């Protein structure tokens, strides 16, 4: 599946100044299903992320993903992953949905390269994951988030997902029911 989001493209045009270099927000972004062939680009994106960005995603700042983890993230056995690709082929974001058959909730996780953050891409990716989760029969999505990761906590609201927040093993567990139809304006209740 391949989607191009007009809102993301439009906002990128307003934000972009000059040509995009590695790690900068490109003028156009294409979101598509990840493939195992994306491993080198995703690895490069991961290594371009700051230690803090990696820590917020993986709860560790490890500079390099093990090959086995990379394969599971790109092509999860029970779910799917999306990548955001710039016009030069550089990948700037990876969003993953884990949803084993028969489970009520899908687990979502996102990693957006530092220079690609704050342009609405995470919101677009989370909405897309929620739509895929609903298509797979999930009733909701959840994410484990470090308590100080305020941007990820706010992301559910921006994506129109009404969530419940609680603590589990020292991290915030955000759970959001999937609305019927279009995503609503969300909040963490």
TrEMBL record:
PROSITE patterns: GNAT (PS51186)
Domain N-acetyltransferase per the UniProt entry, residue ranges: 29-189
Domain of life: Bacteria
Gene3D superfamilies reported for this sequence: 3.40.630.30
A Pfam family annotated for this UniProt entry: Acetyltransf_1
Molecular-function GO terms, alphabetical: acyltransferase activity, transferring groups other than amino-acyl groups
Designated name of the protein: N-acetyltransferase domain-containing protein
Organism from which the protein derives: Embleya scabrispora
């Amino acid at each position: 599946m391949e989607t191009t989001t007009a809102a993301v493209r439009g906002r990128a045009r307003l934000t972009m100044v000059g040509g995009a270099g590695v790690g900068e927000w490109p003028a156009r972004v294409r979101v598509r299903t990840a493939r195992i062939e994306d491993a080198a680009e995703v690895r490069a994106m991961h290594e371009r992320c700051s230690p803090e960005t990696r820590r917020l995603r993986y709860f560790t700042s490890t500079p390099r993903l093990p090959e086995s983890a990379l394969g599971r993230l790109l092509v999860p056995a029970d779910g799917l992953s999306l990548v955001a690709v710039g016009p030069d082929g550089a990948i700037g974001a990876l969003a993953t949905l884990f949803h084993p058959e028969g489970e009520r909730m899908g687990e979502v996780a996102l990693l957006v390269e530092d220079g690609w953050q704050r342009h609405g891409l995470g919101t677009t990716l989370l909405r897309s994951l929620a739509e895929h989760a609903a298509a797979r029969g999930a009733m909701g999505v959840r994410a484990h988030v470090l308590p100080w990761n305020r941007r990820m906590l706010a992301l559910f609201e921006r994506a129109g997902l009404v969530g419940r927040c609680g603590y589990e093993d020292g991290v915030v567990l955000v759970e959001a029911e999937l609305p019927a139809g279009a995503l609503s304006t969300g909040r963490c209740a």
